Amino acid sequence: MGVPSAQFLRMVDRLAEVERGQARDYTSFSVGGKKFGYHWPRTQTVGLKQTLSEQAALVAERPDVFEVQFTSGGFGWVVVHLPGIDADELTELLYEAWQLTAPERLVDEHPLT
């Protein structure tokens, strides 16, 4: 189990119309000018936008893998520890973060496959 950073970045590359922003310690990911994720390679973690209920469920279920990052605009962001998650689950969470942020036309044109 565990997802290397390079594999996570390939997952991001499969999503439609993602823009990357580079800062000193992290990379941010946006769609339609709105952020849905972050990657911190040094700590092997990512931050993903989720619903508040999903944030609470993930953290309660597996606090060794997920932690609360912050809440904003009715969404709950979670920190995901890449060594503790499998690729299928991370793919779903990443797509959900993108889907919560992407314009409706993109979501309709690009379902999770």
What structural keywords apply?
single chain, six-stranded antiparallel sheet, Aspartate Aminotransferase, domain 1, globular, 34% strand, 113 residues, alpha+beta
In short:
InterPro entries: YjbR-like_sf (IPR038056), YjbR/MT2646/Rv2570-like (IPR058532). The protein contains 4 helices and 6 strands; from the N terminus they run αββββαββαα.
Structure in words:
The chain has about 110 residues and is of the alpha+beta class. The protein is built from 4 helices and 6 strands, in the order αββββαββαα. The protein has one domain: Aspartate Aminotransferase, domain 1 (Alpha-Beta Complex). A 6-stranded antiparallel beta sheet has the order 1-2-3-4-6-5, with helices on one face. β5 and β6 form a beta hairpin. It is globular.
Assembly type of the shown chains? Answer: single chain
CATH architecture level-2 label: Alpha-Beta Complex
The domain count comes to 1
Class by helix and strand content?
alpha+beta
Q: Please compute the radius of gyration using only Cα atoms.
A: 13 Å
Text of the CATH class: Alpha Beta
* Spatial sequence of strands, sheet with the most strands: 1-2-3-4-6-5
Q: Let me know the number of strands.
A: 6
Largest sheet: 6 strands, antiparallel
- Low-pLDDT parts are none
- Taking all residues together, what is the mean pLDDT? 96
Q: Roughly what fraction of the amino acids lie in strands?
A: 25-35%
Distance, first to last CA: 21 Å
Anisotropy-based shape: globular
CATH topology: Aspartate Aminotransferase, domain 1
Summed up, the helix count is 4
Along the chain, the helix and strand elements come as HEEEEHEEHH
Question: Helicity, in percent?
Answer: 25-40%
